């Protein structure tokens, strides 16, 4: 009986991990932008109020901050600011990705 229990526990834990990963993917929306400089793929998780994307080979995770208009996400260095179908990325108050337009927006 103990051997069965010892063998079952790792399978149950693996199942929980898989389920959590599945739920996380379901709550994440991938958005494709075309910026003046290059394309940008943003993973938006409304549940966690954060966005993730790669810029200059760095994986960035930005959390939602205060915004008078649109949605603003920051990590203290980078800012991703979107409003409607457009977005801008800043690094320390300098625009690094400008005029980003959402591709195939949902209406």
UniProtKB/TrEMBL annotation:
Gene3D superfamilies: 2.40.128.200. Pfam families: MliC. Residues 33-94 form the C-type lysozyme inhibitor domain. PROSITE patterns: PROKAR_LIPOPROTEIN. Residues 1-19 form the signal peptide. InterPro entries: MliC, MliC_sf. Keywords: Lipoprotein, Membrane, Palmitate, Signal. It comes from the Bacteria. SUPFAM superfamilies: YdhA-like (SSF141488). NCBIfam families: PRK11372.1. This is C-type lysozyme inhibitor. The gene is mliC.
């Amino acid at each position: 009986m103990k051997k069965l229990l010892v063998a079952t526990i790792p399978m149950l834990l693996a199942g929980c991990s898989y389920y959590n990963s599945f739920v996380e993917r379901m709550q994440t929306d991938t958005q494709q932008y075309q910026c003046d400089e290059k394309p940008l793929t943003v993973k938006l998780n409304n549940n966690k109020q954060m966005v993730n994307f790669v810029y200059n080979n760095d994986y960035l995770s930005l959390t939602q901050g205060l915004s008078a208009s649109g949605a603003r996400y920051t990590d203290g260095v980078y800012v991703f600011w979107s409003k409607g179908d457009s977005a801008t990325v800043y690094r320390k108050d300098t625009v690094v990705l400008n005029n980003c337009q959402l591709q195939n927006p949902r209406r």
